[in-house]
Design brief:
Structural class: alpha/beta
Strand content: 15-25%
Number of domains: 3
Number of strands: 20
Shape: elongated
Protein name: DUF4062 domain-containing protein
Largest sheet: 6 strands, mixed
Length: 534
């Protein structure tokens, strides 16, 4: 007859590679238990191991994927240590240690054994062996472990322990109180750990070392240029002589021009004196005045520097500006042009950072102070209408700085919440957007325009914000509703929200609801925000 109502217990096998010979004995012991006691008591113990119960997957760190696939679904674990501790994970000394901590944090049974067998010192990694010794010392105050001498000793001890535990579990001697083993989820202020009051903060980008260095770099460049001023332009007659000497007799302006289709005659009428653009002067002067620097008129002297446009007789009608003058004159012009570019970028940084510094930000985290881990957690925040600043509403950086800010992950630096020794970082829904925009065009005649490049950078910048602000946002008549999903949160731990929350106006309060896999009821709470201006 078919058996009905069978209770399945999943047993995790978590062992470093140097005890693989014990896995067969372990599985034989489980099969013997199932034959001797399982059929009689309508239970079955099923072993789980990464080699048979995992599958290829992406989207998270490898050990976390294993935890999600089968580790957390196990009811007990068996561990054997000898000389190897295992490969480190992002959070623990080895995958085995992380799996042990997963089980212990959920108050699940761990059968742990340390093999005390002879070893060949030349074949032992002493660093690994020391980790085993240290872990054994650390674990002695957290539970009971067995010491085994060989395979036969392990089979005897493990079979006995397996029967003792599961039979007592069946008979009711081992009681698991679901009321006691429950998660307790609550939202707190990341900076103060308070669940009563939350204080908005502002960034101080304008006071950063980055801005200070940019300003000092420009000031130093101005000082250098002040100490290397060129004389004023010469008289009209001299200029005409110099210009005429370049193009007289229809000779090429440059020896290389003889092989090119250049309209040499047109050079005579194209030669003009080079002057610093008025917009350049105004931009640099404004910066100088704000930093108590007075620029003399001679600062803009370029000597007798002149320019002309070379007309290339090619199908696409390309033209290129060239300069006539000494190296000092050409370098002076180039230096002032570079100075203007730096000042322009500096102004864009200041304007953008000033906007960001004006945003009220709050950093939240969710804490589980209960005695049980929890999964499939949804957090719903209800922000009064007109208060929330959505990331799509943030203006884009200026044309000259946006690409650099993307390259240095500016949005991550300003808006993400970094993990600490007590609070883990949110890492579930952040998606990386593939960027093909920076691949150069193979055709030199079809390069992107400045405006097209800026539009692409704006899209990339928005992508970086989208991946960070990984909330679902819903609109209602009275609220902006944000929903955040968390796959797993172990007990006595906290996890930061994926990003700060930004506000146009500080609301008096934000209400929230939390639901999860193991919470019997919806958790409701109130977040009171302290308005510093009130």
């Amino acid at each position: 007859m078919p058996r009905e109502g069978i209770t399945i217990y999943n047993l995790l096998i978590s062992c470093p590679g140097d005890v693989n010979s014990y896995l067969g004995i372990l599985k034989d012991s489980v099969e013997n238990f199932n034959r001797a006691f399982g059929a009689l008591n309508n239970i079955e113990v099923v072993t789980k191991h990464w080699s048979t119960d995992s599958y290829p997957e992406s989207g998270n760190r490898p050990q976390e994927l294993l935890n999600k696939q089968f580790v957390r679904g196990c009811d007990a674990a068996v561990v054997i240590f000898w000389t190897r501790f295992g490969t480190p994970t992002d959070k623990f000394g080895s995958g085995t240690e992380e799996e042990i901590e997963e089980m212990l944090s959920a108050d699940k049974q761990v059968f742990m054994y340390f093999l005390d067998a002879p070893v060949n010192p030349s074949e032992v990694d002493m660093g690994q062996y020391q980790k085993v010794i240290d872990f054994k010392e650390k674990y002695k105050d957290r539970g009971v472990f067995g010491v085994i001498k060989d395979e036969l000793d392990f089979q005897r001890q493990f079979s006995n322990h397996l029967a003792m535990y599961f039979l007592s579990l069946i008979s009711g001697t081992v009681q698991e109180s679901k009321e006691e083993l429950q998660s307790n989820l609550i939202i707190k202020d990341f900076d103060t750990f308070s669940d009563k009051f939350f204080t908005p903060k502002k960034s101080l980008l304008l006071e950063s070392e980055f801005i200070y260095k940019k300003k000092e770099e420009i000031i130093n460049e101005i000082r250098f240029l002040e100490n290397s001023v060129l004389p004023k332009r010469g008289n009209e007659e001299l200029r005409n002589v110099e210009s005429d000497s370049v193009v007289k007799s229809n000779k090429p302006v440059n020896p290389d021009f003889s092989s090119l289709n250049i309209d040499v005659e047109s050079l005579r009428s194209n030669i003009t004196d080079v002057e610093i653009d008025v917009s350049w002067k105004n931009t640099i002067n404004d910066f100088a005045i704000k930093n108590n620097i007075e620029l003399d008129d001679d600062f803009w002297n370029l000597g007798n520097l002149q320019s002309y446009v070379v007309n290339f007789n090619v199908p696409f009608g390309n033209k290129g500006e060239s300069f006539l003058g000494t190296d000092l004159e050409k370098n002076r012009f180039k230096s002032i042009k570079n100075l203007f570019t730096k000042v322009k970028k500096y102004i864009e940084y200041c304007d953008y950072f000033q906007y960001i510094d004006g945003i009220e930000q709050v950093r939240f985290m969710i804490s589980n102070s209960g005695k049980k881990y929890d999964e499939d957690i949804d957090v719903k925040l209800k922000v009064p209408k007109g208060c929330l600043l959505k990331h799509q509403e943030i203006p884009f950086p200026g044309l000259n700085i946006i690409e650099y800010l993307i390259d240095i992950n500016f949005t991550d630096y300003v808006f993400s919440i970094k993990e600490t020794e007590t609070v883990s970082e949110y890492s579930y829904s952040k998606t990386e957007h593939l960027n093909f925009n920076n691949i150069p065009s193979p055709n030199p005649f079809f390069q992107k325009s400045i405006s097209d490049k800026y539009e692409e950078n704006k899209n990339n910048y928005l992508d970086s914000l989208d991946s960070l602000f990984s909330y679902k946002v819903f609109d209602s008549s009275e609220f902006d509703v944000l929903v955040l999903h968390i796959e797993y949160l172990k007990h006595n731990s906290s996890m930061a929200f994926p990003s700060v929350l930004m506000f146009k106006n500080i609301p008096e309060a934000i209400t929230y609801e939390i639901t999860s896999k193991y919470l019997p009821d919806v958790v409701q709470g109130n977040i009171k925000l302290e308005n510093r201006d009130s």
